[in-house]
Amino acid sequence: MLQKLLITGANGSLGSLCRQRLGHMAKTIRLNARRGLGVAGPDEEIVYCDLSDKSAVEAMVEGCDGIVHMGGQAVEGPWKIVKAANIDGMFNLYEGARKSSVQPRIFFASSHHTTGFHAQTTRLDPSKNPTRPDGLYGVSKVFGEALARMYYDKFGIETACVRIGSCFPEPPSHRMLSSWLSADDMICLIERIFSVPQLGCPVLYGVSDNDAAWWDNSSAAYLGWRPKDNSERFRSKLDAERTPPMRNEPDAMYQGGLFCTDGIHEE
Ligand code: 15L
């Protein structure tokens, strides 16, 4: 069992799921967001700070032996926002980890938008295929993965870089039948990441056992994670509710879908 597990972005959709379901993993759960975390439970601590505030982030990371880093910008946005949250924020978090009296193990919520420009006909293996980010957000996640790798090689800080697909109760579009990740599968993955004796610094996709999946996680098989859910059970409902995209539309061509045709957001 961990002593202190930090969950960043704890007021977001994935962060609050972690708050609800990871309590058993640590004696104390330290929750972080900029606001909106309500009242701390008996084994919870709340730390409000912006990820771009270096000294606050370093103080927050001190003493945590596990970090689930869900915080930051989770969609495309203006560079100023992406940079503060996902570039400066990541650096501050890893500097906190490096300086901490306890070396943490880290779950980094990367994104499949690191490889969004790959065609939907390509099966990707993160140990073999190059990144092809589909926007500034995707670029920032590529940076995060590189940073995590450097802190592992130089300082031995272990991170699982999980390229999360689409974690919603149900896939809201046909594209997401391929990228869908159920909440149960995500929680099991986090549990495995903090349980294996040696983690190293794997890069893998956070995706359920979908018939339509594009991604091959065999290089991370040693984690012992076996996703159980399959988006196929939602297909007929989705077909009844939505017209699938045409073959020449971005949502049917690229793994990143409409992120690929989104422009640069001006500030
Ligand atoms: C992401 O990275 C986003 O955080 C999420 O909101 C979805 O848009 C997801 O990608 C996706 O592409 O389905």
UniProtKB/TrEMBL annotation:
The molecular function GO annotations come to:
oxidoreductase activity
Name of the protein in its database record:
Uronate dehydrogenase
Keywords, A to Z, come to:
NAD, Oxidoreductase
Q: Which domain of life is it from?
A: Bacteria
> Organism, per UniProt?
Roseovarius azorensis
Q: Which residues form the NAD-dependent epimerase/dehydratase domain?
A: 6-168
Record's Pfam families? Epimerase (PF01370)
Q: Does the keyword Oxidoreductase apply?
A: yes
What does UniProt list as this organism's lineage?
Bacteria, Pseudomonadati, Pseudomonadota, Alphaproteobacteria, Rhodobacterales
Q: Which family does it belong to?
A: Belongs to the NAD(P)-dependent epimerase/dehydratase family.
